[in-house]
Every structure is written in structure tokens, then in C-alpha cells.
Amino acid sequence: MLWKAVISSLLIILFYGATQTNGEKYPVVMWHGMGDTCCFPFSLGSIKKLLEQELNQTYVKSLRIGNNMIMDYESGFFIHPNKQIDYVCQELAKDEKLKDGYNAIGFSQGGQFLRALAQRCPLPPMKVLISMGGQHQGVFGLPKCPSLSSKTCEYIRRILNTAAYEEWAQMDLVQATYWHNPLKERDYIAHSTFLADINNEVFTNGLYAEHLNRLDKFVMVKFLNDTIVQPKESQWFEFYKPGQDKEILPLKESKVYEQLGLKQMDINQKLVFLATEGDHLQFDRKWFLENIIPLLSQERK
């Protein structure tokens, strides 16, 4: 499970002091990844405490999908992202503390869910979006599964290739909604019920690009030794060239760069690409304090 990957990093964060910042900061909204919940004390619970400490006791909302922790955990696997985003949009609109704007941090698939929220739900306004290992061009591989060298993993992957774009899979399995098969690009665009839409690959929704460009910053963090996200370049909005699964197409050469308004964000210096050593969601305290906290430290206007 993904939460196991972050335990060591987060325990370090919990037991070390940190430098305080001054002034009233924007609230922070966090969205957990697959296999995690809003409030496990050893994962997002510790991140919440760190952010409160570093950002002058600012309000931090760790999103819980549903009425309890079990439902929240299961949401990462079985509740369609579109339903989750609609739910979160309504919850944020009801929160008076967020009405003037907020910053957001998404962990793993929570990164692309928050991006979809920014595109579909512009009120209250999201200011800075930080995607920690989010898969913005999808995945084509299995967790901890080197598909090019493991016969077993390759067999399972072939099964998923066959079923991912079936209606039942798209409706019932969260990971199928961002499964991106570069060998079947037409099937992906035709049947993806989430990722192809938010990436403006089905048709161009001008509001998606407009709303995304309202962000002050869109920060993408890539984990250089990632063994879960395949390809890891998806964390920087890059993916395989269509028709094969070895060569990566640079972001600036992809259609999504213009279709989603990323080119304009790049021109306006709103795109930030960060990288850190470690496997998926593994980072140390020093790196987090030096690279992430400053992005959240702007004072409210």
C-alpha cells in the first residue's frame, strides 16, 4: 500500500522541529492517494501537523471522502473520480474558511484529482497546486511491478490491458480511469471516463484551460526512483509516444501542452517541475521544508 512508502519520511518530519513563518497564510487542502486515508497519524495526519506548524497554524483540511475512514479508504479504489470531485467541490463550497482561496497538495492519484477539481470547480479559488507524484498522463504499469522483466507482471498487465476500457472497469475501478495504454491510444481516448476528459483529449473544453490558468503555480514533483508509477515521467505530465512503451514524448511536443493551456502557464512561469530522490512518495524532511513550504508561505491578500 502507498502509505507504507511514506511512513519513514513522515516519522522523521514528526520528530524534528521546524522554522516558523509569520503572517496569515492561505488554508491548505490535501487529498490522499490510493491505499491511504485523510487522517492516518503516520501519513497525512503527520503532514497536517507539519503544515500547521510551519504555516503559522493555518487551517489545513485533509479531505475525507464519505462519512467514515473505511469509506474514505475504499474511495481510492472503488468510487469514480468524477463522483469524488463533485463531492469535494460541494464540501469546499460549504467551508467558510476557504472562501477567499486555498492552496492544495495532492499525493499520488490525489494530485490529478485536485487538478481536475481546479479545472471543474473554480470556486472557492485554488491558488497553488502541488502534485506529489501525481500521474497526470496516466499509468501503464503495475505497482512494484517491473513489467519488462517479470513474466508474471506482464501477464497481469495484459489482462488489465484487455479489461481497463470495458464499461464495468471504468465505472468500478478508479485506477482504470487513468490507465493509459499507448499501444491502444484510440481506445484510451474513446473509453477513458476521467483522464482523457480532464486532459482535453476527447474534445477541447476551453473552461478547463481557463480555470487551470487561474492558478498562481502548478507544481509537479517527480520521484526519481519511483517503482510504482510507470512511467515516472507522467508525474511531470509526460508520457510514452503513441504506439510504443519505451520512448518518452517531451511535454512541449505533446498535444496536451497546448490543448490544456499548459503552454500559456509555462509562458507565464506558472509551471514548476521539482524532483527528489526516493521511491514513490518517499522524501526527507529537509527537502520538504526547503522546496514545498516556501510555495505555501505567501500571505493572504
From TrEMBL:
Keywords assigned: Disulfide bond, Glycoprotein, Hydrolase, Signal
InterPro entries per the UniProt record, alphabetical: AB_hydrolase_fold, Palm_thioest
UniProt keyword annotation of Disulfide bond present: yes
Signal peptide per UniProt: 1-23
Entry-linked Pfam families: Palm_thioest
EC supergroup of this enzyme: hydrolase
Record flagged with keyword Disulfide bond: yes
Listed EC numbers: 3.1.2.22
Family the entry assigns: Belongs to the palmitoyl-protein thioesterase family.
Protein name: Palmitoyl-protein thioesterase 1
Organism: Musca domestica (House fly)
